[in-house]
Amino acid sequence: MADQMRLTKWLAASLLAVFVLGVLGCNQAPSKRVVQVQGLTMGTSFSMKWVDTDSTRVADVQARAGALLSRINQQMSTYIDDSELSLINAAQPGSRHSLSPELLEVMVLAEQISEQTRGAFDVTVGPLVNLWGFGPDGRITHQPEVDQVRQLKARVGHDYLHLDVEEASLLKEGEQYIDLSAIAKGYGVDQLAALLEAEGITDYLVEIGGELRARGYKPGKEPWRLAIEVPHPDTREVQQIISIDRGGVATSGDYRNYFEEEGVRFSHTIDPRTAYPIRHRLASVTVIADQCAEADALATALMVMGEEEGYNFALEQGIKALFISKAKVGFETRHTPSFAPYLQISNGGQ
C-alpha cells in the first residue's frame, strides 16, 4: 500500500464516481455546498466529498486523512519492508505477534469472510499472487511450472492463521504470507468515512481507487450516483448507473490486469482453492454492503467463484451484487434481488 502498491489491480476494479456540481435550488441554503479533498495513497488516489457549511475545516480534514491513510499503509502494506504486516510475513513459522487494533480488526473480518465464502477469499493467497506475477516481485511472461504452483499451494490456507482476539495476537503455523490488498483499501474507505462522521458530517462520498462509501445526499436531496464501468481493457465507458444514500461499494474485475502466453489469458485474480488464475466468463462483480471493507472482500470472493457459483452464493447469502459476464457479443448483466433498488432509483431519473 505504498504509492506503488498494486495500482493496476485496484484500478482494474474501479468505480467511477459520477458527481456534478450544479446550481443550488432556490430552497437550498446558499452556504450549503459540496467541498472536496483529494490525494494519493495505496498506489492510487483518494477523494473525499461532503456537504458542508464550513469550508474552513477542509485543510484540517485533508491533513488528518493523510495521516490516517499513512498509518494504515504502515500497518498493512506488503510493499513497505518494515510495515507491521511485512514483519509478520518475514517472521519464523510458529511465532506469535501482537497486532495493532486496526490490523486485528481487518484480520478478524478477513477470517469471517474466508469462512463465509468457504475459502474463495483467503488472505494467505499472497505467495501465489506473487508467483503469477501480480505482486511486489513484478511481472512474468510465462506461466509458472506445475511443481512451483503445487509447492506454494501447500502454504495457502486461512486455517494456518490463528487469531487470539482477547490477546490481540496472531500465530502463523508455517511460512504463510498475508496479502490484504483485497480488503485493506475498503477498510481505508471506512476509516475516512468514520473521520467525517466524527466531525458530525452526514452527507458524504469517500473513495480510494474506485472503492467507495456514501451516506446521505448531495445538496437538493440528490442521491450519490456511481457509474460501473464496462469491463473492457481498452475503454472507460459506463455500463450501469446506480444510486446510493448509505453503504460501501466495491468492484472486482479481471479485465485490465493480466498477461497472455500463446493465446491464453492469465488473470490477476487467483483462486486460492485451485492456485490458478480464474478461467470463467465473469468479467466484473460489484457488491454493496454496510462496510466498504466487507464489500471489497466479498467482491473478490464472488469474482473467484465465477458467474454461476458466485451468483448462487450471493442469492443464498443475501448479498447485494451485480454481475457482468462476457457474452458472444458484448456483455451480459444480472443482479441479485437485493441489488435491484439501487438500479430502480437510478433508472427512475431521480
From TrEMBL:
Keywords per UniProt: Cell inner membrane, Cell membrane, FAD, Flavoprotein, Lipoprotein, Magnesium, Membrane, Metal-binding, Transferase
Keyword Transferase: yes
Chief place where the protein resides: membrane
Membrane topology: Lipid-anchor
Reaction(s) catalysed (UniProt annotation): L-threonyl-[protein] + FAD = FMN-L-threonyl-[protein] + AMP + H(+)
EC number: 2.7.1.180
Cell location: Cell inner membrane
Cofactor: Mg(2+)
GO MF, one annotated term: transferase activity
Tree of life domain: Bacteria
Similarity field: Belongs to the ApbE family.
PANTHER family: FAD:PROTEIN FMN TRANSFERASE, THIAMINE BIOSYNTHESIS LIPOPROTEIN APBE
Function summary: Flavin transferase that catalyzes the transfer of the FMN moiety of FAD and its covalent binding to the hydroxyl group of a threonine residue in a target flavoprotein.
Protein name according to UniProt: FAD:protein FMN transferase
Taxonomic source organism: Marinobacterium weihaiense
